[in-house]
């Protein structure tokens, strides 16, 4: 595909999130979020992608999927449930000659269940859990979820023991307590003027959430930056009269990226592990997938 054809195809797509270089001088018209992305890349540099299998959750246009492939991943699965970005991903995949596998009908709450064909149709060894991932990328997602712990549990379920979670999220920077702040939508907007932001943890809280989901945080990987998301009218919280709501943040907001490794059962508090296995009240961990059943 020559440059003119790429530009023509780009002009046919109205919405882009990522800025992906498709050819010299040709970049998809996404948001100006380079500080977030560069912070993620700085943390990601501590991981070895060579010959690894990677799951990229909430892939959007696929920027971090394609980058994982360029870093040497042997297989990249791109998952999302935002179907309007599927055509963006396919265009980038075609132009870049990527082999990343898209699953754009999968919620972050149902990774283990919806990827069952990927896990179980394993003709190399015929063992259903051999295809759990070496690396899961959970980027720019946690704060958009009403049930963030469920998503973390699903991410843990699809990782190999010792596998790595690369996570990046909104965080509260000026509080050292293990607190998870509720945005208070639709009337409060304590954190972000964005109707799809539900929760934001402090860094201490994020670490404890991961610990409680059978992850070991790599403390030296933690990198946080102060960042105010560029506002746009469609992302504002509105009152009943349609006017933008007044916002009383009261929090110093930023972003944090870190790496956590999947901890195996038997290396933690026995009572906590038993409680996590009571999936009727702590859903998310797939005990069969983990081999804990």
Can you offer a commentary on this structure?
The chain has 293 residues and is of the alpha/beta class. Helices cover 27% and strands 21% of the residues. It contains ten helices and twelve strands. The chain has helices at 3-11, 34-44, 63-70, 86-96, 111-114, 116-120, 148-157, 203-211, 270-276, 287-290, and strands at 21-23, 26-27, 53-57, 75-79, 101-103, 133-139, 159-172, 180-182, 199-201, 215-217, 223-226, 253-262. The strands form three sheets. Strands 3, 4, 5, 6, 7, 10, 11 and 12 form an eight-stranded mixed sheet that branches. The chain has a two-stranded antiparallel sheet with strand order 1-2. The protein has a two-stranded antiparallel ribbon with strand order 8-9. It is globular, with a radius of gyration of 19 Å. Residues 231-248 have low confidence and may be disordered.
From the spread of the alpha carbons, the general shape counts as globular
Main pleated-sheet profile: 8 strands, mixed
Quote the distance from N terminus to C terminus.
50 Å
Structural class, by secondary structure, is alpha/beta
Task: Give the integer mean of the pLDDT values.
Answer: 90
> In angstroms, what is the radius of gyration?
19 Å
- Unreliable spans are 231-248
Tell me the number of strands. Answer: 12
Q: Helical stretch count?
A: 10
Helix % is 25-40%
């Amino acid at each position: 595909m020559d440059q003119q054809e790429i530009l023509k195809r780009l002009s046919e797509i109205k919405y882009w999130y990522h800025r992906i270089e498709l050819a010299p001088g040709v970049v998809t018209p996404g948001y100006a979020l380079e500080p977030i992305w560069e912070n993620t890349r700085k943390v990601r540099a501590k991981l070895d992608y060579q010959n690894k299998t990677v799951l990229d959750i909430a892939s959007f246009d696929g920027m971090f999927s394609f980058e994982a492939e360029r870093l040497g991943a042997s297989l990249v699965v791109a998952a999302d449930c935002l179907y309007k970005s599927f055509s963006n991903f396919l265009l980038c995949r075609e132009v870049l000659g990527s082999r990343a596998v898209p699953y754009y009908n999968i919620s972050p709450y149902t990774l283990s269940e919806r990827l069952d064909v990927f896990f179980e149709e394993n003709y190399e060894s015929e063992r259903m859990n051999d295809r759990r991932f070496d690396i899961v990328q959970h980027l720019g997602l946690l704060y958009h979820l009403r049930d963030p712990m469920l998503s973390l549990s699903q991410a843990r379920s699809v990782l190999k023991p010792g596998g790595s979670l690369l996570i990046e999220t909104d965080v509260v920077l000026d509080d050292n307590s293990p607190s998870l702040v509720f945005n208070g939508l639709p009337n409060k907007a304590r954190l972000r003027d964005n109707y799809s932001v539900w929760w934001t943890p402090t860094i201490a809280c994020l670490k404890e959430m991961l610990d409680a989901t059978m992850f070991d945080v790599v403390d030296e990987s933690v990198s946080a930056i102060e960042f105010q998301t560029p506002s746009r009218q469609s992302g504002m919280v509105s009152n009943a009269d349609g006017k933008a709501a007044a916002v009383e943040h009261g929090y110093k907001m930023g972003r944090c990226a870190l790496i956590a490794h999947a901890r195996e059962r038997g290396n933690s508090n026995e009572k906590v592990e038993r409680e996590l296995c009571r999936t009727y009240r702590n859903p998310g961990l797939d005990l069969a997938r983990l081999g804990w059943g």
